[in-house]
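Ligand-bound model needed. NAP.
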Amino acid sequence: MLDVLIVGAGFGGLYGLHKLRSQGLRVQVIEAAPSVGGTWWANRYPGARVDIQSLEYSYSFDDALQQQWHWSERYASQPELLRYANHVADRFDLRRDIRLDTRVIAAHFDEQASLWRVLTDRDEALSARFVVMAIGPLSSPNTPAFPGLDTFTGPVLHSAQWPHEPVDFSGRDVAVVGTGSSAVQLIPIVAEQARTLTVFQRTPAYAVPAHNGPLEPEREARIKADYPAFRARNRRMRAGFGCELTPHPLPTMQVGAEERERQFEERWAIGGFSLLGAFVDTLTDMRANDACAEFVRGKIRQIVRDPAVAEALCPTHPIGCKRLCVDTGYYATYNRPNVTLVDIGDAPIERVTPRGLVSGGREFGFDTLILATGFDAFTGPLTRIDLRGRGGLHIRDKWRGGPLNYLGLTVAGFPNLFNLVGAGSTSAFTSVIVAIEHHVDWIAGCVAWLDAHGHATIEATEAAESAWVAYGNAIAQQTVFPHCNSWYLGANIAGKPRMFMPLAGGFPAYADRCAAAAREGYAGFAIR
Ligand code: NAP
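Prediction:
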């Protein structure tokens, strides 16, 4: 019998194993892929790289690790991130407790024994006192049910299920469906290789340049000179990163137009998410948001030479409402003669044909189809498991109206089950490794407390869960987030209930709430 079974060997599962094992617990990680690395194993499309600088998107739990690991670029590429995950697995001797190539297909809570009974696709039955779901909020790829998709005669590639051997696009006529973060990263690279590239855009994306390049040695040295203090400063930031830049002291519209423009230009020159942090109210005040959005639309009009194409690329929804894309040459790619933008906002894809697709009654031809169509976020990874809590309650039924949860970590009716970077936590708005370390440390503290007090189970109460969801909704209502169709809301998946799933209140306030619940003897939980 295990103390803890962890599902997933991405960054969450790796740290979970290290932390819980070092507490003397018997821990086993089950991973469906043949490798550790999670999202960085699966998302290997050309151009895949992190959108938060690597000095901030990396583990902080071990000072020797953070001192010794050297990132070659400001924003690490997928292969480098995968090397990092493998390094961590080796360095902390994690592999002996990780079973690869094994998928958890069922987890049922046995009320008599107060244990989780877990079944894998290798017909193994495992029992554990606790289960930690470390499967990531973006691990269930969304393939839209386009009629005729199976009749397409060329390769169909999904950005999140990319082949492991290199794909050569030279001489090919390629189509990309989607213009989210994955598409924005892969489009410039595929465009350089393909004979033609046609991009089918349902909603234009806001993309801000990464200005990626070799990591500056002086910056690395400066941060490493006191890395723990830098990490601590970041943990006090709303997003868990970005402590080197503070917002302007005044709200956007109290600043003169010239000064506002100067602030935006400075942030554009720095790149990445820093633009959204130029002013404190970009995500909470529509006029402030529109000033920032208009600045980016201005950039698009400057970069893209054909005014009609530029206009089609200009988003009209609030900036940051869908996750901001961080790019390298995205808009400029539309100046290439071999690239065509097809706006399908008002003419959805009707069907895929053997040699193309039909939208707005018109057929477009190509021989390779890339679906960069995102994920069934937050709920998809859990609901595809036969996951049942007390009384056989299936997670699909529990979450029929949306992912109810308490502290983003637990679900009423599912005792001793913890979820990492899920709905109800700030993870989607945080450097996810900051969220992972926070969650794992909280869970480790909770398990230690239960054991020290001789308790067998902990379970969120329905009252605490309802209050938490209401709290999350109330915060979301004060922001721009409800005003577009994002994966945060489940709006990208046909038929999914619309509920704002992540918590928008900022990491420090969230961490305080979690700490307070623990301090108060796990307030909001039933403990037996
Ligand atoms: P996404 O942001 O959900 O984008 C999916 C794209 O596909 C959207 O443009 C969407 O249009 C389009 N789409 C979906 N279904 C469609 C349909 N039936 N017909 C036409 N178009 C359709 O997914 P993603 O790009 O994979 O990114 C998801 C998240 O993963 C990101 O927001 C980010 O958090 C993370 N990510 C990060 C990075 C990084 O830079 N490190 C890279 C990739 C992903 P609509 O907008 O109209 O729905």
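The chain is about 30% helix and 15% strand.
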